[in-house]
From TrEMBL:
Residues 175-300 form the Nudix hydrolase domain. GO terms for cellular component: cytosol. The lineage of its organism: Bacteria, Bacillati, Actinomycetota, Actinomycetes, Mycobacteriales. The gene is nudC. It catalyses: a 5'-end NAD(+)-phospho-ribonucleoside in mRNA + H2O = a 5'-end phospho-adenosine-phospho-ribonucleoside in mRNA + beta-nicotinamide D-ribonucleotide + 2 H(+). This is NAD(+) diphosphatase. It comes from Mycobacterium yunnanensis. NCBIfam families: PRK00241.1 (NF001299). It holds the Pfam family NUDIX-like. Its EC number is 3.6.1.22.
Length: 320
């Protein structure tokens, strides 16, 4: 595991960076976090605020590449206890989100469809991507955090939806995020490892990923997960970027690392069914064929564009 906890990738070792910001990491609105503690100011903007509705299946209404936002005031005179404050739009209006049935667009002639973040992330503009990713993460957390993790007491939404509080003790709890690493292993030249999980259909391949354990750094997690899942030792673990993954509450932290193609694969933890070294040309061809949802007969199908895995793979495949 030489270099597994720090050394950056140097010249000749396949250094590359992400070509684009991962789709769910885009920023298009002001999160206005100061209004979470000045709730009166946040509520004061409700009259002309916009409202994002997310249904129980985490679906939203989309029209023209944008999420459909309705009038907050038409929904209710003031924010109800389950509304969450998402921030300010570029025009200054506040925007909130609630869990509820989806309404049609205000323009009855506008074409619209109901999609979730996984299927709509690639067509969203920056504002929509940020709002839906944030709303999905927050609302999912509220759904599972109705009672205190400390003593089981019922909790109430607090700080415009960015905390929950025990009204008796005053103890606050905040939205939980579970960090996970995702890593492209390559030989420093023209080959990279792609793997298929046991629960995936044939031909579906992606990168090695796993959750960070207590007391563990991201880099150490990369080395451990790669060793556990495919039996390789890696070096030169290098950070690339990150992306929220609110399914239900993860943060994906992307890396690349050097592996040895002569080392034998060992699938010791049962999560990986098969893995292989693929050339840059093979990966480029698979990327051109589309993604997991395509009708391609390619022997290699890769993740869709909403995943940071896709951005990492593309960035390596087309690195200068």
């Amino acid at each position: 595991m030489t270099g597994a906890t720090g050394n950056g990738t140097g010249p000749g070792l396949g250094a590359f960076t992400l070509r684009n910001v991962p789709l769910l990491s885009r920023v298009g609105a002001d999160r206005a976090d100061e209004l979470r503690t000045d709730v009166d100011a946040a509520v004061a903007g409700w009259g002309d605020a916009l409202l994002l509705k997310v249904d129980r299946r985490n679906q939203v209404l989309i029209s023209g590449g944008q999420v459909v936002l309705g009038s907050a005031a038409k929904h209710s005179p003031t924010p109800d206890e389950h509304a969450v404050f998402l921030g300010r739009m570029p025009d200054g209006r506040h925007v909130w989100a609630v869990r509820g049935a989806l309404d049609g667009p205000e323009d009855p002639h506008a074409e619209s469809e109901v999609l979730d973040l996984r299927r709509a992330g690639a067509i969203f503009d920056d504002v929509s991507a940020q709002l839906v990713a944030t709303a999905t993460a927050l609302l999912n957390w509220h759904d599972s955090a109705r009672f205190s993790a400390a003593d089981g007491s019922p909790t109430k939404s607090h700080k415009a939806g960015w905390a929950r509080v025990d009204p008796v003790s005053g103890r606050e709890e905040f939205p939980r995020m579970d960090p996970a690493v995702i890593c492209l292993i390559h030989d420093g030249h023209d080959r990279a490892v792609l793997a298929r999980q046991t629960v995936w259909p044939e031909r579906l391949f992606s990168l090695i990923a796993g959750f960070v354990e207590a007391g563990e750094s991201f880099e150490s997690c990369v080395a451990r997960e790669v060793a556990e899942e495919i039996g390789l030792s890696v070096s030169h673990v290098t950070y690339l970027g990150s992306q929220p993954w609110p399914f239900p509450r993860s943060l994906m932290v992307g890396f690349h690392a050097i592996g040895d193609p002569e080392q034998e694969f060992v699938f010791s933890d049962g999560e990986i069914a098969e893995a292989g070294w693929f050339t840059r040309a093979e990966v480029q061809e698979a990327l051109a064929d589309g993604d997991w949802n395509s009708e391609s007969e390619s022997r290699l199908l890769l993740p869709g564009s909403i995943s940071i895995a896709r951005e990492i793979i593309e960035s390596w495949a087309f690195a200068d």
